[in-house]
Design brief:
- By secondary structure, this protein is of the alpha/beta class.
- It has a seven-stranded mixed sheet with strand order 3-2-1-4-5-7-6, sandwiched between helices.
- It has a domain of 160 residues: Vaccinia Virus protein VP39 (Rossmann fold, 3-Layer(aba) Sandwich), CATH 3.40.50.150.
- The chain is 45% helix and 21% strand.
- The chain is built from eight helices and seven strands.
Amino acid sequence: MSQVTPYNNSDSKKEQVAQMFDNIAFRYDFLNSLLSMGIHKGWRKKCVKRLIPLQPKLILDVATGTGDFAIACMKLNPTKIIGIDISEGMMKFGREKLKKLNLDSKIELNLGDAETLDFADNTFDAITVGFGVRNFENLEKGLKNLSRILKPGGSLIILEFSYPRKFPIKQFYTFYFSYITPTIGKFFSKDNRAYAYLPESVKAFPDNERLVAILKNCGFKEASFKSLSFGIAAIYEAKK
């Protein structure tokens, strides 16, 4: 997998991604809804439904951003949700959101990333990652660490963009992602690179069957994926 970074400078991918999200945090939720036309909310609901049979009590939400996935997981009635992210800027807006929703006692947001988390082995009943694995600096290292801290029988749910392969969705998606998304993103976020990095990173990412194979190599079993919205995103589920 080729290493795609937001700013193409000498900083590590992790540092660049953190800077990018800090830069766009003030517009992130707005642009997310605008550019996806709200579809991402339905995708998250489908992810949460997959966790209902597990009835997880302790959930880790990786790359939590402003906390939307963690908030959606409250429908599972967990005891606690811990959200982690490498961008303090994003979590600042997330914490404000949690306070307004009176969820700050159930959901806590902390600085951290999948590759270096030092929770004890077999800690979490479920782990979610929404649009975050694409940004891991070392994908395998991050997934292996998530496998380590997941309880046996626990589920990892990943929601991630994928690249459609069928005409005409592939052509429309390529045009929208390559021209419309960066133009709108640049206008509202004032960051020239953030929304150009998005299509570049999606194209470089090992999606669908390739990610399922990587999950299995990283210690997960029963790994599978389900395409969403004509293949523009996918839900990956893996058990430990």
